[in-house]
Queue: 2 jobs
Job 1
Amino acid sequence: MAMNAGLTAALAQLPQQLRQTLTWDRGKELSAHARFALETGTKVFFADPHSPWQRPTNENTNGLWTGPAYATTSTSPSP
């Protein structure tokens, strides 16, 4: 239930057109998705396993977080 409350609060800050659907990865974090959908009017979908194209924003964000700006440089001397 805490997840629903936090997610509802976060969604309330978004414009209405961005709150219509939510695609969630498979996991128990959103086990009360039916209640969340009823309370918020947001349709909840679950991505199929091993199908990152069904969660494009998530995958794009992961790429940004792990991209060149976050790459570590080696501090080891060259051989």
Job 2
Amino acid sequence: MTKTIKSTASIVLLALLAALGFSACSDNSNSPFVGEWTLDRASVNGIAVSAEAFGLSSELTIKADGSFALSFNAESESGTWKTDGDTKIILTIGRDGRPVEMKDGELILSIDDDTLLFYTKK
């Protein structure tokens, strides 16, 4: 009987470890956020202007592995991202996190209370 209990305990332990291993690897491959995004326009104090008119160039690449890369004009940054509900993610560079909302197929990155950047998927 002791041998049966040990066998059962071993099987349960292996199943738990497998479940933990699978849950630790978050699969974002089907996330609508994953992909390459380009800056379409910016809105400052409610006035939207095309990125081209502002002289801005920005690309945002969100990867399924939980990382992202952001280029803005000549500068680039990278970091991690995580979901925050169905329509939001948090982009984190170092200790700073920025919320990004998906609305009508666009990503909206809030820079401050008055400035929004709108990205469209390539």
